[in-house]
TrEMBL record:
Source species: Breznakia blatticola
The keyword Hydrolase belongs to this UniProt entry's keyword annotation: yes
GO terms for cellular component: cytosol
Protein name listed in UniProt: 6-phospho-beta-glucosidase
Protein's GO biological process: carbohydrate catabolic process
Keywords: Glycosidase, Hydrolase
Molecular function GO labels: beta-glucosidase activity
Pfam families recorded: Glyco_hydro_1
Gene3D superfamilies: Glycosidases (3.20.20.80)
């Protein structure tokens, strides 16, 4: 057993998203967001967007775990675990209820003012995502979300208000959560991926996805530029989902397949970090005859809005095998992913691969050479309460193995990592399925899939484990 130390000033904490934790969906002048019109999926199935809020449908995000009213109590738990940072998002609809107004909603701004003050009072640094799967629903209905260039300006205005208002309270920012995830969701789930796109029958979904993603990348770059004008020492990053894709065999064609799949998922990072698209994506658009509205002004904005760090989520890895007839990109993504026989999958099919985290850190550092921030990693599982206790050794094992790999990456590979925020430090609504039973927390919340529950909070065994890791600032391996 050796003790692997983390760097001094390493940021330790947890990560949340406003719509998954806050509730209070129609309080404080808040408008309706995409998340507010997403139904709960059946167990393990994707959720659906409904046309507005309809009677008789259960919307899990409406109350979530009531953080909106209970955040003071919850911050105390985080403090007790020793958090030095907390990642969460600002609900766009608290600040601009419709999204296209000229003036922000003062009550929404005040909510985050008092929330950030409370964090800072406890020595917890807020790490803020501007858009985490919760575009104002009005922008979806009226403008078609990010298929419309106008949404760039709405997003920039929202960001500007946040930067100016919270400039003395927040240093670490991220623009769009898991911006690259939309390449996997040319489905009814698309509006939930920040893009706000609802696809119509018969349209070329892929082309529209690339267009919307381009507008989001431009919006992100403009926001990064603006952030620097407002405050020099803001640290502003992107946020990507990092799911490394391994070749199934060492067959050259499998390797090529894996390379192309990685390019498709990670081109976003190239644009964020270098301010330019990689040639492979431009070439792909040409091959497919996609017409992307991409102006000279856009190219300039992208170049001038490069990020300071890469925030990323890591939960799992994938594997891929070449299939006869498929020419790399021209596949349906799901059908090209194969089960990796060397790693175990969990209930929701996510493959557990701690070494994949070390691989990801190396990959991102080698390609992009700027600091990294692990802003999501965690284990979603059913938890059982027995006599008021939750023995979640499976979660401890998962996190411990990932932290071990993180410490190796820092110590042996010299990776520059700002911090680590585990996903859902308190149980929250699952983004993918809308379930409560897919729990990630160190703190259990008595809330269930049918909306019942006292909302009482309980410390799980993992609470004490994480508390120890943070206070020691090392893991044993
Ligand atoms: C990421 C999202 C989060 C979060 C997490 C876990 O993709 O950024 O919002 O929810 O995944 O996913 P799920 O909640 O579906 O288990």
């Amino acid at each position: 057993m050796s003790k692997r130390k983390f760097p001094e000033n390493f940021l330790w904490g947890g990560a949340l998203a406003a719509h998954q934790v806050e509730g209070g969906w129609n309080e404080g002048g808040k408008g309706i967001s995409v998340a507010d019109v997403m139904s709960a999926g059946e167990h393990g199935k994707a959720r659906q967007i409904t046309d507005g809020v309809q009677d008789g449908i259960y919307y899990p995000n409406h109350e979530a775990v009531d953080f909106y009213h209970r955040y003071k109590e919850d911050l105390q738990f985080f403090k007790e675990m020793g958090f030095t940072c907390l990642r969460t998002s600002i609900a766009w609809t608290r600040i601009f209820p419709l999204g296209d107004e000229e003036e922000p909603n003062e009550e929404g701004l005040q909510f985050y003012d008092t929330f950030f003050d409370e964090c800072l009072k406890l020595g917890i640094e807020p790490v803020i995502t501007l858009s985490h799967f919760e575009m104002p629903y009005h922008l979806v209905k009226t403008y078609g979300g990010f298929r419309n260039r106008k949404c760039i300006d709405f997003f920039v205005r929202f960001a500007e208000v946040c930067f100016k208002r919270y400039k003395d309270k927040v240093t670490y920012w991220m623009t769009f959560n898991e911006i690259n995830n939309q390449t996997n969701f040319t489905t009814d789930f698309a509006p939930f991926t920040n893009s706000g796109i609802v696809y119509k029958e018969g349209e070329n979904r892929e082309e529209i996805m690339y267009q919307a993603a381009h507008y989001e990348l431009v919006a992100s770059a403009k926001v990064v530029k603006l952030a620097r004008e407002i405050k020099d020492d803001f640290q502003i990053g992107c946020m990507i989902a990092m799911c490394p894709i391994y070749p199934y065999f060492c067959k050259p064609k499998d390797m090529m397949m894996a390379t192309k799949a990685m390019q498709k998922r990670l081109y976003f990072t190239d644009v964020h970090v270098f301010g330019k698209y990689p040639r492979n994506i431009i070439q792909y658009w040409k091959r497919k005859n996609f017409t992307i509205d991409f102006t000279e002004e856009d190219a300039k904005d992208l170049l001038e809005g490069c990020v300071d760090y890469i925030g990323f989520s890591y939960y799992m890895s994938f594997a891929t095998a070449y299939q006869e007839g498929n020419t790399y990109y021209d596949y349906d993504e799901d059908s090209m992913l194969v089960k990796n026989p060397y790693v175990k999958a969990r209930k929701w099919g996510w493959q557990i691969d701690p070494v994949g985290l070390r691989y990801s850190l190396n990959y991102l550092q080698d390609h992009y050479r700027i600091p990294l921030f692990i802003v999501e990693n965690g284990y979603g599982e059913y938890d059982e309460v027995v006599d008021g206790k939750i023995h979640d050794d499976y979660r401890i094992e998962y996190l411990d193995k990932h932290l071990e790999q993180l410490s190796i990456a820092i110590e042996e590979d010299g990776i520059d990592v700002i911090g680590y925020t585990s996903w859902g430090p308190i149980d929250i609504v699952s983004a993918g399925t809308g379930e409560m039973r897919k729990r990630y927390g160190f703190i259990y919340v008595d809330k269930h899939d049918d909306g019942t529950g006292s909302l009482k909070r309980l410390r799980k065994d993992s609470f004490y484990w994480y508390q120890k890791v943070i206070s020691n600032n090392y893991v044993e391996s």
